[in-house]
Amino acid sequence: MTMNDSLEMVWGEIRSLGLETYIADLDAHGYTVIPPEIASPGDLAERMLTAVLDVAERRNGVRPDLETGSTHAGFKGRFAAFAPKDGDSPIGDLMQSLLFEDRVFEEALMNPVLLAMASYLCGYSVVLSSMGCFMKGPNKSTFFLHSDTPLPSPLPPQALVCNLTYVLTEFNRENGGTAFVPGSHKWCRSPEGRDAIVGEGGNPNAKAVECAAGSLLCWHGNTWHGAFNRTASGLRVSVPVYMSRPFIRTQEGLIGKIPDEMLDRNPPRFAILTQQGISYGYESQDDSIVRAQVAAKYLQAYGEAQGMGTATARGLYN
Ligand SMILES: [Fe+2]
Question: Of 127, 160, 119, 125, which Cα lies nearest the Cα of 316?
Answer without folding.
Answer: 125
